[in-house]
Amino acid sequence: xxILRSLAAGFAGAIxxxxxxxxxxxxxxxxxxRMDVLGERGLRKLLRxxxxxxxxxxxxxxxxxxxxxxxNSLYYSLVGSGRHSLGRGVGLGVAAGVGGVLLPxxxxxxxxxxxxxxxxxxxxxxxxxxxxxxxxxxxxxxx
Length: 143
Prior knowledge:
The chain is mainly α.
């Protein structure tokens, strides 16, 4: 599989992941994962470390969404190609989801956005797994 096809598969997974997060957070505001909040916190933390000005909420949200799609696309593009791309996609998705639940606290970003309830934790892992599944399917289809 070419690099462009791998990137396209990764982009497909990232778009589905982002669409799931954004749709569910509007439908279930009480327990939906809020990875957008974690992203904004991370952005603001990096800007503070460099003593750079803080953007307003709309700008931070837009930058976070762009950064999420870009980094998730690159991450999911690791599915590569071949017979095992689907399995790699699922594995990458599960790993990202578990990381999304376990890492924000130790990184100083807080735990509530991805660990508010057991349902929040399950949705976090499920959405990233679905993104990986889509990337794996797209990679297989692009062969």
